[in-house]
Amino acid sequence: MLVANPSQGDILRTEAEFRSARASGYLATMASHFSHKIEVTEVDDAVHLQFVCGLAVLRTTTDSLHMCIEAPSKEEMQQTCQVVESHLLRFAFRENPEPLVWRKL
């Protein structure tokens, strides 16, 4: 997990959900794609994508991909969300997806 630096304050968190019957396939595609560039680990039932700007934790249910982002600053949060969202929407183009709605935690 991303560890807070006391000089940076608390870690910021946000989440989004992408509903799709193909959620597990998108999770596998994202994990495979990012594993060539960043640290990707499986922890319990989740995949952790450790970016320089933040941590993305991805989980699936039977009909959705749930994404939780943690980052030390608003700017890094936005950057991490943008990277995760842009890749997911690109991989899911056949579903003509809408932009994700991120909810602050």
Structure description:
30% of the residues lie in helices and 32% in strands. It has 105 residues and is α+β, with helices and mostly antiparallel strands. It has one domain: 2-Layer Sandwich (TATA-Binding Protein), CATH 3.30.310. Strands 2-3-4-5-1-6 form a six-stranded antiparallel sheet, with helices on one face. A hairpin with a 3-residue loop joins strand 4 (55-60) and strand 5. The radius of gyration is 13 Å and the shape is globular. The two termini are 16 Å apart. The model is unreliable at 1-8 (pLDDT under 50).
Main sheet attributes: strand count, strand direction, barrel closure: 6 strands, antiparallel
Just give the CATH class.
Answer: Alpha Beta
Secondary-structure class: alpha+beta
Strand content: 25-35%
Helix content: 25-40%
Number of domains: 1
Radius of gyration: 13 Å
Sequence stretches where pLDDT stays below 50 over 5 or more residues: 1-8
* Tally of individual helices: 2
Please write out the topology.
Blueprint: E1 12-19, H1 23-35, E2 39-43, E3 46-50, E4 55-60, E5 64-71, H2 74-91, E6 103-104
Antiparallel strand pairs: 1-5, 1-6, 2-3, 3-4, 4-5
Quick rundown:
The protein has 105 residues and is of the alpha+beta class. It has 2 helices and 6 strands. A 6-stranded antiparallel β-sheet has the order 2-3-4-5-1-6, covered by helices on one side.
